[in-house]
Amino acid sequence: MITVAVDCMGGDVGPAATLPACAAFLNSHPQAKLLLVGRPDVLGAYSEVVNNVRCRVVPATEVVAMDDPVEVAMRKKKDSSMRVAIQQVKDGAAQAVVSAGNTGALMAIGRYLLKTLDGIDRPAIASQMPNALGGSTTVLDLGANVDCSAEHLFQFAVMGSALVAALTGREEPTVGLLNVGEEVIKGSEVIKKAGILLRNAANTGDLNFFGNVEGNDIFKGTVEIVVCDGFVGNVALKASEGLATMIGNFIKVEFSRTIFTKIGAIFAYPVLSAFKRRMDYRRYNGAALLGLRGLVFKSHGSADAFAFEQALCRAYDAAHNGLLDKVRQRIAHAAPLLAGEGLSSELKSIPTL
Amino acid sequence: MITVAVDCMGGDVGPAATLPACAAFLNSHPQAKLLLVGRPDVLGAYSEVVNNVRCRVVPATEVVAMDDPVEVAMRKKKDSSMRVAIQQVKDGAAQAVVSAGNTGALMAIGRYLLKTLDGIDRPAIASQMPNALGGSTTVLDLGANVDCSAEHLFQFAVMGSALVAALTGREEPTVGLLNVGEEVIKGSEVIKKAGILLRNAANTGDLNFFGNVEGNDIFKGTVEIVVCDGFVGNVALKASEGLATMIGNFIKVEFSRTIFTKIGAIFAYPVLSAFKRRMDYRRYNGAALLGLRGLVFKSHGSADAFAFEQALCRAYDAAHNGLLDKVRQRIAHAAPLLAGEGLSSELKSIPTL
Fold first, then answer.
1. DSSP class of residue B75?
2. Nearest-CA neighbor of A331 among A151, A84, A109?
3. Transmembrane stretches, by residue range (chains A, B) (predicted)?
4. For A95, A97, A176, A219, which has the most beta carbons within 10 A of its beta carbon?
């Protein structure tokens, strides 16, 4: 039995999305329990879910707003649904938590309550993007850290490998380092140094490091995990969302332009619906906050019930497959590489940044 | 009369793309002349272009290969078509140069022969991406500089404004600073400092600074110019190309899946061809290397004749509209802001990075 704590109040939509998602999730997961965290008066309106024998309401009087500064979320709203939900994981009452609330606040409260794992300096946000192979590419960091060192990138690679191993069962997923070219001599000093650390880990069998990859490789599916600085990852993710939205709107406008194109849309229906399904970012909803002593999953703030359900499923799978232990073990195994043991002389010759 | 020097040998395709492009360009630009730089024996095969009264062949015995290291291109191939073409601009024989060759070599030789403008530390690569408004967003830097300071980003903003003003005639194009959020408190230290410099320049009327923008704003068309570090710009550009390619292939595969979808494709033809035209990255070919004492345009290495022709048109327009003087004037006007004159105390309070 896996119990997931749900911040029912978070996100742009709130309970109108999270509660129906919980209902659907319970139907498809007979082994799951949910802790529904939020204002009991609000949650009471969704009696069918709230009264489900596998659900329990955990009251929280406050809500972190999407635009609340981190300090407000941390210091002023100590009884927020977000914080109380994370507390459930800390207390061992739940094995994972899902929130669609403000990312900065979630990360800050998660770090504060749960702390980071030994060997991890900074947690990272990992999410999936669809690729041309019909699967998905896991990318991290997507915005938790805007000034990463080579060591941080290395830790992201180890944590990303654990995540993909837990979610897919493939023990040695391939890792690529996002760069401006494939050649090892390319990139910033941080990237070059990270490349050395990663190649070294590949030599000791700690990572299945492919090498440098470029932006287009995310969608080609060249590797299973793409590692990058949070600034770069965030821009790449949002640029891709922007482009996908533009293309989607363009197709919609063009098909409704004339009577002839409207007829075309009817004939093109199977393709358009396959396209819509394939590009449906809701299917990829549910980013993992990796590196904490507890499983925290972030749903997109604008998630509807279907999207939020995907985040619940991902959190469940991660808990079910022992993601936390996997991250812990891999970090413990790879950490000595960062401490200088077994480091190649190549790395030592790079000037300190 | 504007003369453009053409590196006819550069790129993956070489003369088979560049020469037909030159022919098409001459047809549509009766006021243009071309200097065709390359091996006379190879160019001789394209007699119609070579014998055009507005063309002159400038011999160069060597060719910079796409994978030549910068040092080889600089030191070993002193009679390369790329170098001889840039030399034409330095000598005043041409007002702009276009090459589809190796970007690193083009930038290095451009800097070596032409030097940078006063007030510019590093040249930047600027290119256009299609946006949802039906126009294009100019993004720089796209990969020339992987470790940018706030001052570099500021210079990119000034140069980008000059470029858009020259190509569109709009004297005060809007500038956005690419960040992980719109709020001024977000982002890396470099970005925050760049934001202060840019707001300051907006206050003195040197720039039409909109504020921070995110990755999706590139395609929304929120601003006319998006400024970023070359690493981030390169990843965003390539990720977008990768996504567009994936979507294009997906649509192709889906429409050819069954007899029914094939019929659908016929009915959807007007939409599909509009989509193809709109997403045709060839139309956006021709990146400007800004900050040099001469106009250098870079075509995509894989450009075909149509794409290369667009780069020629862009170089012609830039020369015709006095881009070089515009960059020079704007930099001269804005440079005192960087020297500390008129700097707000806000900036001085930021610790040196």
1. I
2. A151
3. none
4. A97
- Structural contact between residues B15 and B49, judged by C-beta atoms closer than 8 angstroms: no
- Tokens coding B247: 């979507």
Which two three-digit tokens encode residue B332?
Answer: 């001269």
Query: Contact, B340 vs B200, CB < 8 A?
Result: no
Residues A279 and A241: their CA atoms lie apart, in Å, by 10
**ipTM (interface pTM):** 0.86
Of the three residues A114, A145, A168, the one that is the final residue of a domain is A114
A5 and A147: one domain?
no
Number of A/B CB contacts below 8 angstroms equals 186
Contact A249 B132 (CB under 8 A): yes
Q: Which residues contact B27 (CB under 8 A, 6 or more apart)?
A: none
Identify the bridge partners of residue B175 per DSSP, sorted by sequence position. B209, B225
DSSP run (H or E) holding A99: strand A96-99
**Percentage of residues of chain A with pLDDT beyond 90:** 69
List CB contacts (< 8 A) between B71 and chain A.
Answer: none
Site of tokens 């959190």:
A315
Closest approach of chain A CAs to the CA of B143, in angstroms?
7
- Cβ-count burial A176-203 (b if 16+ within 10 Å, e if not): bbbbbbeeeebbbebbbbbbbbbbbbbe
Pairwise CA distance, residues A311 & A317, whole Å: 10
Range of the domain at B26: 1-114
Last residue within a domain, chosen from A63, A81, A114: A114
DSSP assignment letter at A72: I
Contact B264 A261 (CB under 8 A): no
Which residues are within 8 A (CB) of B184 and not within 5 positions of it... i.e. 6 or more apart?
B192, B195, B211, B212
> Which candidate in B247, B253, B255 is best for mutational testing of the A interface (most A CBs within 10 A)?
B247
Contact indicator for A333, A159 with CB cutoff of 8 Å: no
Per residue in A269-319, pLDDT (tens digit) is 888 888 778 777 888 899 999 999 999 999 999 899 999 999 999 999 999
Mean pLDDT over A333-351 rounds to: 60
Residue A289: inside a domain: no
- Tally of domains within chain A: 2
| Closest-CA residue to B315 (of B325, B323, B307, B306) | B323
